[in-house]
Recover the amino acids of this structure.
């Protein structure tokens, strides 16, 4: 959601900024722009649409001179996506230009204050208010003007700011929205995310809340909210640039689906000791704390929330702790009944989803301990939690999550076994058997991914359907929600998921001849119930694809009652089943979207990292 890059150094800035923005395209955007400082002037170029428009307009940056600049991809919030509303925004005087990610909530109030001061506005954005406000305070000291303006802002913001009369520096500042600083030799950078920097440096600093960086060619100085210098640990990014490239695949999504066995292994194996016991490496949450907790809340958004739903079943069954799963956007306004006896588990790939971050803060304010399951090292959620467990999925670029989802599942499975063991609900041997099943999962995933032809074939049969329904019971219901989300977000086919037993309480009226229903029946104990539900929709003319681990009896007497297609999955036990079930759902969504010619890695209206409420 909005991408920011910034550069100062000895090279021409514009081509470098455009390359950086290319690496942030996955975040989702509808316009792009850049501002470069040259000979006392700020040159701004921006265009609605794909980055390519801006690249063509600027001859891939070649026709914009200057060695200091900022760039932006915009995901519209205030004001429609058009050239004028695109970033960077230039102040009325032409002295300041700025890019912004986030939402300024009190922009209307600030706009009327600035109007009284004689400022006029050309765009409908909240961002333009910020650039005029900085201009208003600017008397030759960029840091002081930015600080004064920031004190007046409410909401969330990551900002990159350049000044026409300061070719020697630019400023970056953040609150509730991610921003990293890249450290080079004789050149320095900022970006919303690491992939934009990898071609130049692996040394990065993650700016903390309300921290400001003054970036020059020679170095970067970071200040806190009060203007006091802050020393930051410099993180060394170990994954190579290639892991954020497509590596021969047509789409990142397919690449990331295929990377799941390795990502799963990376997340689980290092946490298993030679004797088969688990070492989570929790820093602050002791075994005693896990023994004494009375309830667990799992809070997340989207697919991460679906992982939470799967985990609820597992934790309640295996560790016998009551679990509530909450959507982060609801949790905050729910007056949740939590306190020091509650463990709140936050799940987030990016570690920057704003709703989830705010839910975390709410939980901490209420006295709960917070354990986060996060993919991006050093992200806001990771930093602000009591304890963090990292999924080691590597960079995930496609908007539709696949390998991050799988590693979140893996980590939650591992945590469940650990919790159950600590609370005496599993014997050593039972825990080891569960661990062995987890360790065997990557090979099972590889076997599943070896041949995708069945799913390509099914996609070719059904890619032009208008509606596709998913149904399942218990854990399979949580998987049905994920399968449906995956399909709709990238193929734009209307899809819904239902708890199979609920169909006859309303939904079944939507089933008509030819409606495609994907029935998940991997839970052995609910197999017969699912078969009845399949028959109910078949009786109304539905076409059914069943996913199962248990053989389905095909009734030769009543061919119309049988599922039309059956996908068999290996039986790996209840805890590990979701890790396998999700794979055909991901592949089906992918191939359907491919046949429909959709923009798979960057679906319309969506962003990889949702940094607005
Ligand atoms: O980064 P997060 O895990 O916090 O993101 C949460 C959701 O936005 C995310 O899972 C979203 O639903 C995915 N695009 C689904 O594929």
């Amino acid at each position: 959601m909005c991408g920011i890059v910034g550069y100062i150094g000895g090279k021409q800035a514009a081509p470098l900024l455009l390359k950086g923005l290319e690496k942030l395209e996955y975040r989702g955007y509808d316009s792009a722009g850049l501002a470069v400082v040259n000979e006392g002037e700020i040159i701004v170029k921006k265009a609605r649409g794909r980055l390519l428009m801006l690249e063509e307009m600027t001859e891939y940056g070649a026709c914009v001179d200057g060695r200091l600049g900022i760039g932006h991809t915009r995901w519209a919030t205030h004001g429609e996506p058009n050239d004028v509303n695109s970033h960077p925004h230039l102040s009325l005087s032409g002295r300041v230009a700025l890019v912004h990610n986030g939402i300024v909530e009190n922009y209307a109030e600030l706009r009327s204050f600035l109007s009284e001061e004689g400022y006029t506005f050309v765009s409908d954005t909240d961002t333009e208010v910020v650039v005029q406000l900085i201009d208003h305070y600017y008397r030759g000291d960029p840091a002081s003007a930015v600080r004064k303006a920031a004190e007046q802002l409410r909401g969330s913001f990551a900002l990159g700011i350049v000044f026409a009369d300061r070719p020697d520096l630019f400023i970056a500042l953040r609150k509730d929205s991610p921003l990293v600083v890249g450290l080079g030799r004789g050149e320095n950078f900022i970006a919303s995310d690491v992939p934009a920097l990898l071609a130049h440096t692996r040394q990065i600093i993650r700016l903390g809340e309300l921290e400001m960086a003054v970036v020059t060619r020679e170095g970067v100085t970071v200040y806190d909210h009060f203007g006091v210098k802050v020393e930051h640990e410099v993180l060394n990014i170990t994954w190579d640039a290639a892991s954020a490239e497509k590596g021969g695949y047509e789409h990142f999504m397919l690449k990331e689906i295929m990377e799941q066995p390795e990502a799963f292994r990376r997340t689980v194996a290092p946490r298993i000791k030679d004797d088969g016991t688990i070492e989570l490496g929790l820093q602050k949450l002791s075994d005693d704390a896990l023994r004494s907790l009375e309830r667990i809340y799992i809070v997340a958004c989207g697919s991460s929330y679906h992982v939470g739903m799967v985990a609820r079943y597992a934790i309640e069954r295996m560790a016998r702790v009551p679990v509530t799963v909450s959507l982060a956007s609801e949790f905050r306004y729910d007056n949740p009944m939590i306190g020091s006896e509650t463990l709140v588990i936050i799940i987030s790939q990016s570690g920057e989803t704003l709703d989830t971050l705010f839910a975390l803060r709410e939980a901490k304010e209420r006295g709960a301990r917070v354990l986060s399951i996060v993919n991006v090292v050093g992200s806001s959620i990771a930093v602000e939690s009591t304890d963090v467990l990292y999924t080691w999925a590597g960079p995930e670029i496609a908007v539709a999550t696949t390998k991050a989802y799988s590693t979140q599942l893996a980590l939650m499975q591992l945590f469940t076994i650990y919790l159950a063991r600590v609370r005496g609900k599993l014997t050593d041997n039972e825990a080891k058997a569960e661990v062995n099943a987890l360790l065997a999962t990557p090979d099972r995933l590889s076997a599943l991914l070896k041949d995708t032809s069945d799913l390509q074939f099914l996609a070719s049969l059904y890619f032009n359907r208008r509606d596709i329904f998913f149904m399942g019971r218990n854990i399979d219901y949580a998987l049905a929600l994920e399968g449906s989300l995956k399909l709709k977000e990238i193929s734009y086919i209307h899809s819904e998921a239902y708890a199979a037993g609920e169909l006859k309480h309303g939904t079944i009226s939507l089933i008509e001849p030819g409606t495609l229903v994907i029935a998940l029946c991997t839970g052995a104990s609910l197999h017969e119930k699912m078969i009845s539900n399949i028959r109910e929709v078949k009786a109304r003319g539905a076409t059914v694809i069943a996913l199962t681990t248990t053989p389905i009896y095909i009734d030769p007497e009543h061919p119309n009652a049988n599922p039309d297609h059956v996908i068999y999955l290996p039986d790996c036990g209840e805890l590990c089943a979701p890790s396998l079930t999700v794979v055909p759902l991901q592949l089906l969504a992918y191939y359907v979207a491919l046949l429909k010619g959709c923009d798979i890695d960057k679906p319309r209206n969506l962003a990889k990292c949702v940094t607005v409420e």
Q: What stands out?
A: The two ends are 12 Å apart (CA to CA). The chain has a mean pLDDT of 93. The domain at 252-449 is CATH 3.40.50.10490 (Rossmann fold).
